[in-house]
Amino acid sequence: HSMASEQTSTRLPWKKPLCRSIDIRSSFRAGVFLRPSVYREASHTLTETAHSTPHQPIHRHRLPEMLSRLAARRPRPGSARAAAYRSSAAASSSVLPDALDRSSDAYARNAAAVGGLLSDLRSRVSQVLGGGGAGAVKRNEGRGKLLPRDRIDRLLDPGASFLELSQLAGSDVYEEALPSGGIITGIGPVHGRLCMFVANDPTTKGGTYYPITVKKHLRAQEIASECKLPCIYLVDSGGANLPKQAEVFPDRDNFGRIFYNQAKMSADGIPQIAVVLGSCTAGGAYIPAMADESIIVKGNGTIFLAGPPLVKAATGEEISAEDLGGASVHCKVSGVSDHFAQDERHGLALGRNIVKNLHLAAKETSIHNSACDYQEPLYDVQELRSIAPADTKQSFDIRSIIARIVDGSEFDEFKKLYGTTLVTGFARICGQPVGIIGNNGILFTESALKGTHFIELCAQRNIPLIFLQNISGFMVGSKSEASGIAKAGAKMVMAVSCSKVPKITIIVGGSFGAGNYGMCGRAYSPNFLFMWPTARISVMGGIQAAGVLAQIEKNNRKRQGVEV
Q1: I need a labelling partner for 272 at 20 to 30 A (CA). Which of 167, 218, 264, 315 fits?
Q2: Phi, psi at residue 203, to the nearest 5°?
Q3: Distance from C-alpha of 449 to C-alpha of 517, rounded to nearest angstrom
Q4: Are 331 and 337 in contact (CB under 8 A)?
Q5: CATH number for the segment(s) 132-361
Q6: Do residues 201 and 148 lie in contact, with contact meaning Cβ atoms separated by under 8 Å?
Q7: What region, left, alpha or beta, does residue 385 occupy, with left being phi > 0 and alpha being psi -120 to 50 degrees?
């Protein structure tokens, strides 16, 4: 994890270590089990510790010590202390007596029968863990891909357990083998937050969707919706299985219901995250397109409604999969994906970063949270006075300001390669999570759409917004009008107007025209608005205003027949 984390860092190489902790009782209540050996030790003393141990998080490195202490307190079976414990328990009306006869024939028969069934179960599970077979696994690895369970393991917190669901789905259902129904689903923690994982298995029929695959995917979404679990989709699928399309496509609880559930959960504030690690074709392309945030991996990741063969058949165009719908296309041009990953490990590390930046409960984002430990910016705050030029016509990189106001100078940038004249991303200031929007030039259609998306994300996640204004307005001209600049700008203004999170606006340079509106000017009720000594506000810059007035005067004189 540490190497992958370094790849995603946008600051100096040193990274503040994360304090990871685990609360045993919370883990049991949530139904996410510890490793089997830990569970066996802890479960015997759960009732006792629930009443005698303060409800405090236990750091992961103290877990073995704590379990040893619990084991020492628990009476050993057959000991005098155990007999006394059972006698004491029987005397209490709240503790069930142990009526099990361990010496009976029934006890032995049951143990033998269950032992045989468990052996069969382990054998079946071992088979499905092999995926689509040795040949398919080898081809997958030859493309630089990880297996789906390895992908999940890299997203999980180190040492955490994964509660896999419906592991034997698809067993003996079809003539051909379909291990785990061609999809891996389950629950596990990422940065301490329980998430629902849905991972296509490309080694099983190319990750295509059979009827049982759809059913398993929908069941995972149902659990996520009921339990309010963020969904992480690890996408590597050829879409619906065409020979089974009559059972996969037309009905209510078929393939289309997946996207319906995504939309509903996103509207309910349940984060939807997609990591595109392979093919994402036809209807499957909507999984990352409808996600709140998505990542695509260079080389292997592709998103398109129709692949190169169908494009050639339909239009005659010959094009490669990468040029048609690869990472560069969707991160730099279309904006369908929000994060560009160099490889799978980088992509999965970015996925962990997204979960780290998800919304917190309202009480956690209160002012009291800012009292926690935090790191000062790595660069001298006093240098802020030397960054912004006195002449508002001169440009500068807004990241230089961000690096001097956020904790540890750490900034997780959002849609870095798209709409580059607007900088957006997540950071912390004095321990408080914030979303930052800063100008790096004039606003184009792409920049406005990017800003709208980011504002809506922060509003959904209850993250305060900080606007760093240095804006000359929206781009003008025939190309801009044809691209829908007016509509894109209106969407950004609407997002600013309707977001209910705290907003702070800091004008660090110019604030001209409608750019002032899109960047939360005074008319949009920021909680605070501050101006630097060099800041200027007006409908347009002085030179532009003089040019417009001169042109109006010239036109008036022409109409009056006065020589110009």
Answers
A1: 167
A2: -80, -10
A3: 15
A4: yes
A5: 3.90.226.10
A6: yes
A7: alpha
Position 77 confidence tier, pLDDT thresholds 50, 70, 90:
low
Convert the pLDDT of each residue in 316-357 to its tens digit. Answer: 999 999 999 999 999 999 999 999 999 999 999 999 999 999
Task: Report the chain's C-alpha Rg in angstroms.
Answer: 29
Summarize pLDDT for 443-458 with one digit per residue, the tens: 999 999 999 999 999 9
Q: In the structure, what pLDDT confidence band is assigned to residue 371 with cuts at 50, 70 and 90?
A: very low
CB 450 within 8 A of CB 492: no
Longest dimension (CA), the chain: 118
Measured CA angle at 92 (ends 91, 97), to 5 deg? 70
Would 132-361 and 381-546 be classified into the same CATH topology? yes
What one-letter code names the amino acid at 53?
Answer: T
In the numeric block, which tokens belong to residue 60? 């992961």
Cα distances from 123 to residues 95, 126, 129, 161, 241, in angstroms, run 38, 5, 10, 21, 28
* CATH 3.40.50.1000, applies to 381-546: no
What lies within 8 Å, CB to CB, of 474 at 6+ separation is 442, 443, 444, 448, 480, 485, 489, 513, 514, 515, 518
